[in-house]
Structures are given as C-alpha cells and as structure tokens.
C-alpha cells in the first residue's frame, strides 16, 4: 500500500509532542491560508504562546472596560457562546432577558414609564453603536420636522464639547452631520453649557452632553445645559433636544450621586447611551441606548423581519451577534442589585482617592480629574523642564502597567495627562504598588532623589519643593 508523504507526516504529527513537532520551527501563515491543516494541539499552543506577549488586561489601566467577572457568569457566557442573538424565534428567553435589561436600565435612568414594560431601548455592541442609533433618530426627527415646515434639511449639525469620544466624530463623518465642537480651555476640560447653547442653531439635531468625560472623568453640567436650552427653545420656538453620552457615568451617577439630575428627569433629555461593558460590569461587547418614549424614535427606522420564524422589530446596525453579553448583563443586574452596584462604585471611588493621595504625596503632579465623576485619576507633571508624561508612561510599561499619556483637545493642547482608570478589580494593594512603581520611575528619571528603599518599598515621603 502506498501512502502519500503528506498523509504519513500529518498522521505522525498527531502523535508528536507539540514542541517536538515541525510546527514549532516553521513560519505560521500570515498572508495566505495554508494548504494543509495542522493538529489542534499545535494550533492551540502556538497561538496561546504568541498571545503571551499581549499585555495583561487586568494591568491595563487605560481602559474603562470590564476585565473581571465572577466564574459563575463565565459559565453562562460560555454556555451561550453559540447562540446568535438575532434568532429571536429560537432563543425567546434570551430576547426576554434583553427586554428586562432595557426596562431595568430605563428605570435606573428615571424614564417616565407608563407601565413597567413600556421602556424603549435596545442592546448594542457598545456605546458606539448606541450613539449611531441615537444620532440617526435625532437626524430623522429633525429632517421630518424641517420637511414639514418646507425648510432645507441638508445641513444638520450636532453641538458637543471638543472632549467628545471618537465615536461622535465617526457618527458625524459616516452619517454626514456637522460636528460643532465647543472648545475647551486650560483648567476647564469639559463642554461649557453656556457656550454650547450659544452655538445651537435651527439645524442642530441635538446637543450631546457627556456624563463622564473620557479625558478626565468629569461630569458635564447637564442640568444647566437643560435649563439654558429650555430658555433658548422658548425664545426661538425650536425644540432642540439633548442626548446624554453616559458610556461610563451611566452606571456610576445613579449609585454615587443619586441626587444629581442628569437623566430623563430633565425634560430635554430624549435619549441616553451607556456601555454595559464599562461600569455595567460586563466583558466587552455590550452597550445600551434608551429613548425617553416611542415618540423619540421615528417608527420608520424600525425594521420588521419575519423570515426567522416570527415577526421581529429591529433597530440595530448589525444583524447577527452573540447572546452571551446580554445574558451576562442580566446576571450582573440581578446578582448585584442596587446595593451591590453601589458598593462596587464606592470601592472604586475610595481606591481612586487613595491613589490620588499617593500621587499628591510625591509632590510632582497636578491632579486634573475631579472628585465627583468617573473613578479615575488624571494627572500632569508639575515641571516639564526635563521630562514629560510620555516618558513616564513608557517606563511604567517596564513594570507591567499600561498607563496612557495623551494631550488634551483644543484649546487645551498644551496640557498632557497620564490617566489611571479605577475598575472593580483594581484593589488598594494594586494602587499602592502602582504608586510605588511611579516613585521608582521618578527616581530613575532623576525627578525625585533616590531614597533607600525600606523592605523593598520605595520611600515616598519626599522633601517639599523637589519637583
Ligand atoms: C467609551 C466611551 C464611548 C464609546 O463606547 P464603546 O462602548 O467603547 O463603544 C463613547 N463615549 C464615551 C464618553 C466613552 O467613555
């Protein structure tokens, strides 16, 4: 019997110990799919090994996105990994869980619901998709209104602070809406409501306010924005609405600052987005958009499909997607309850304050973040004569930490900050270790004098005025 060489070598390969196989010393395909399969053990081991060079997500202090969930939830996630969310006929319970999440989040944001089931909203891949949908609803409503009044509707605009997250720039670009940015200034890094309202004109489809600026975590003054806009609307007879981008703050404000009015309690707030995968405490791939009422979501944007076995109404950009994140969101909402979320957010806030104190003790930094906002610490070097924040960021990588440095948008470009986002899984021990490592970096750069370590812990008590 003649066996071809390839078959013989492939079957031998199946017996090989992975690191003794030829796969361990041949290049893996990068540009073209290879002709032949490779054993699953080798594929697993080689990819797993290459991924070791990625950073450790838990030490990525740049990201707001969840990096830890309970093992019980991991089980639910894996059990649903093969369910396509769009097959609602097949998976009616999953659809029901998404509806429950929409209702719960709408309630959390004080939507004026007639009964507990009337919330209008949808789960998305993240806040970016949620913002595209909210933006499209505003654009369509505005166009309908302008057409009805026989006015031109080809030059829509959105007013927002120059601190907007990139997804607003994408929305403006992809859907051809002009983004009118309110400039920042040194020492004030969020949208000034007064300036924003001055920029509103008849073509403004909405003002986008941010609850928790990506740059420094600060909440914009949405109550003041609402009041100024109500007055302007009365005077001009326009009805310019507000969208709140609560990507990171939507799961913080209700627990830490319940008295703060930023949501549907304000009459001009017509839609809100939140990232389930940020402080909603779910792994990446989930966001939510909630509308105040049916009126705020033009019916013509909703598609009805029936070829999957039942009539379904959908308003999303994607068709197929996973179900796991929706299930995981429902897990967190029922597992934690209001008290559970509150405690986690309080821990994050306390740990942010602790880190801030540690950084202040070095006397080398100005703190740029605010105490009420998203639990993060943004800070700048006091003295830039010898070194800058990018060097510190690079050197911290050597310790395993990822702490980004970036410059502020116009007109505050002169300011560079380092930012540490405090997530649920960033404990006080890690905060202390981070301060310790930052002090070592400052010493290596010669910004701080080297003081002998005490039992391996950098001495952070410094002489005033060194920086
Ligand atoms: C993170 C963030 C976004 C984008 O959210 P994704 O869920 O990552 O798509 C939008 N706006 C703000 C303020 C954010 O912080």
Structure description:
The chain is an alpha/beta fold. It folds into three domains: 2-54, MYOD Basic-Helix-Loop-Helix Domain, subunit B; 73-333, 3-Layer(aba) Sandwich (Aspartate Aminotransferase, domain 2); 348-463, Aspartate Aminotransferase, domain 1, CATH 3.90.1150.160. The chain has helices at residues 5-15, 40-51, 71-79, 92-108, 127-148, 166-174, 193-199, 222-236, 253-256, 324-361, 389-397, 428-444, and strands at residues 120-124, 157-161, 178-182, 204-210, 242-245, 269-275, 287-291, 303-305, 312-314, 365-367, 376-381, 405-407, 416-421. The strands form three sheets. Strands 1-7-6-5-4-2-3 form a seven-stranded mixed sheet, sandwiched between helices. Strands 10-11-13-12 form a four-stranded antiparallel sheet. Helix 9 links the parallel strand 5 and strand 6 (269-275). Helix 4 runs parallel beside helix 10 (324-361). It starts with a helix and ends in a 23-residue tail after the last helix. The model has no long low-confidence stretch (mean pLDDT 92). It binds pyridoxal-5'-phosphate (PLP). Residues 64, 126-128, 165, 167, 210, 212, 214, 245, 247-248, 275, 287 line the site of pyridoxal-5'-phosphate.
Note the overall shape.
globular
CATH topology of the largest domain: Aspartate Aminotransferase, domain 2
**Biggest sheet, spatial arrangement of strands:** 1-7-6-5-4-2-3
Just give the CATH class of the largest domain: Alpha Beta
Task: Spell out which ligands are present.
Answer: pyridoxal-5'-phosphate
User: Mind telling me the C-alpha Rg?
Assistant: 26 Å
Parts with pLDDT < 50 across at least 5 consecutive residues:
none
Number of domains: 3
CATH superfamily of the largest domain: Type I PLP-dependent aspartate aminotransferase-like (Major domain)
Q: What can be said about the biggest beta sheet?
A: 7 strands, mixed
Protein name: Glutamate decarboxylase
Pfam family, one: Pyridoxal_deC
Enzyme class: lyase
EC number: 4.1.1.15
């Amino acid at each position: 019997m003649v066996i071809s060489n390839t078959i013989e070598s492939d079957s031998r390969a199946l017996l090989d110990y992975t690191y003794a196989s030829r796969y361990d010393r041949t290049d893996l395909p990068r540009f073209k799919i290879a002709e032949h399969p490779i054993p699953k053990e080798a594929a697993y081991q080689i990819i797993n090994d290459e991924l070791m060079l990625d950073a450790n997500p838990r030490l990525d202090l740049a990201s707001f996105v969840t990096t830890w969930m309970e093992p019980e939830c991991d089980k639910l996630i894996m059990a649903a990994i093969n369910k396509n969310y769009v097959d609602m006929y097949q998976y009616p319970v999953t659809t029901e869980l998404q509806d429950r999440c929409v209702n719960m989040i709408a309630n959390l944001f004080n939507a004026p619901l007639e009964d507990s089931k009337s919330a209008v909203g949808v789960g998305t891949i993240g806040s970016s998709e949620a913002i595209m949908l909210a933006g499209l609803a505003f654009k369509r409503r505005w166009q309908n209104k302008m057409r009805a009044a026989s006015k031109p509707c080809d030059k829509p605009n959105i007013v927002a602070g120059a601190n907007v997250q990139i997804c607003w720039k994408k929305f403006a670009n992809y859907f051809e809406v002009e983004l009118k940015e309110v400039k920042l200034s040194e020492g004030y890094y969020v949208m000034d409501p007064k300036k924003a309202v001055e920029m509103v004109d008849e073509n403004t489809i909405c003002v986008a306010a941010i609850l928790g600026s990506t740059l420094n975590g600060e909440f914009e003054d949405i109550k003041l924005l609402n009041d100024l806009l109500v007055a302007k609307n009365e005077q001009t007879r326009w009805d310019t609405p507000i969208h709140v981008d609560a990507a990171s703050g939507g799961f913080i404000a209700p627990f830490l600052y319940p008295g703060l009015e930023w949501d549907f309690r304000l009459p001009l707030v017509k839609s809100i987005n939140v990232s389930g995968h940020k402080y909603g405490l779910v792994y990446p791939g989930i966001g939510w958009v909630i509308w105040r009422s049916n009126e705020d979501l033009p019916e013509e944007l909703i598609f009805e499909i029936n070829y999957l076995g039942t009539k379904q109404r959908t308003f999303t950009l994607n068709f197929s997607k996973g179900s796991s994140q929706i299930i995981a969101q429902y897990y967190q909402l029922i597992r934690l309850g209001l008290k559970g979320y509150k405690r986690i957010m309080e821990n994050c806030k306390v740990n942010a304050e602790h880190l801030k104190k540690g950084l202040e003790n070095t006397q080398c930094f100005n703190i740029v973040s605010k105490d009420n906002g998203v639990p993060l610490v943004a800070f700048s070097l006091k003295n830039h004569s010898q070194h800058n924040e990018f060097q510190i960021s690079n050197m911290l990588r050597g310790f395993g930490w990822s702490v980004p440095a970036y410059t502020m948008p116009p007109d505050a470009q002169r300011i560079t900050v380092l930012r540490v986002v405090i997530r649920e899984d960033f404990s006080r021990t890690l905060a202390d270790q981070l301060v310790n490592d930052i002090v070592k970096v400052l010493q290596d750069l010669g910004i701080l004098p080297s003081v002998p370590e005490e039992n391996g812990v950098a001495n952070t008590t410094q002489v005033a005025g060194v920086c």
